Amino acid sequence: MGKIIAIDGPSGSGKSTISKKIAERLGFTYLDTGALYRSVALKLRNHSVPEDASDPLISDILKDTELFFSKGNLFLDGQEVKDEIRTPDIGHYSSVFSARKVVRDYLFDIQRNAARDNDLVAEGRDMTTVVFPDAYRKFFLTASDKERANRRFMQLKEKGMEITMEEAIRDVRERDTRDSQRDIAPLRKADDAILIDTDNLSIDETIEKILEHVT
Q1: pTM for this one?
Q2: 106-135 in b/e burial notation, b at 16+ Cβ within 10 A?
Q3: What is the C-alpha separation between 207 and 201, in angstroms, rounded?
Q4: For residue 128, what are the CA distances in angstroms to 30, 39, 47, 125?
C-alpha cells in the first residue's frame, strides 16, 4: 500500500479543493470519496430508491453497479459523472445514504483498493478513523457553519445553480447533524489527527499549514 495522507472534515470545510491541490503538489493520486458517495446516491435516485429503502433493495442495485476512477475522472456504469452529482438534491441524498451500512460496505473496498499501488491524498468523513486509520498523516479541517454555508452558496452560484443563503445554511447544518450522529462511522476527529480551522485561512495558507507536517 502506498503512502496515505488522510483528510476529514464537515461539508464546506474546504477539504476537497485543498486535498486536490496537495495531491498535485506532491504528485500523489487524489481520492474524492465525496464523489463516490454522490455517485451512489445518483444511481439510487435514478432507480427511485427512497430514503427509507430496505438494505436488500439497495444491495440489489449496488451489486450491479460499476464505479471507478480513471486518470482522475470518475465513471459510473461506464459513463463519466460530472456536475450531475454536485446538485443540492444529490448532496442531500448522498448524506442520507452514506449513513447506511450497505452503502459504506460497498464503497470500503473501492476506497482501500485506490491506495494499493498509489500514494494517496484521501478526503472524506471517515478517512482518518475507518478507511485509513494507519495513514501516514491525518488532518481534520473545520470552519464555522456560516462560513461553510457561504462557500457552498458561492460554489453553486458559480455553477449556475439556484440556491439561497438560507437554504445553504440549512443544508450544511442538516448534513452536520446526520454526519456526526449516524451510528456507522460518524464524523469525528481522530485522536491523532491535526486540527486546522480554515475560517480565516486562504486555500494557499491552509495548504502550507498541512505541508508543514508532511514534507
Answers
A1: 0.86
A2: bbeeebeebbeebbbbbbbbbbbbbbbeeb
A3: 10
A4: 15, 22, 32, 8
- 3-class SS at 175? helix
pLDDT in tens, 144-178: 999 999 988 888 888 788 888 999 899 899 888 98
Q: Specify the residue for cell string 485543498.
A: 18
Beta bridge partners of 67: 76
- 13 residue type, one letter: S
Q: Which domains does the chain have, with CATH numbers?
A: 4-211 (3.40.50.300)
Cβ pair 95, 175 in contact under 8 A: yes
How far apart, in whole angstroms, are the C-alpha atoms of residue 100 and residue 182?
9
Chain centroid to CA 89: 16
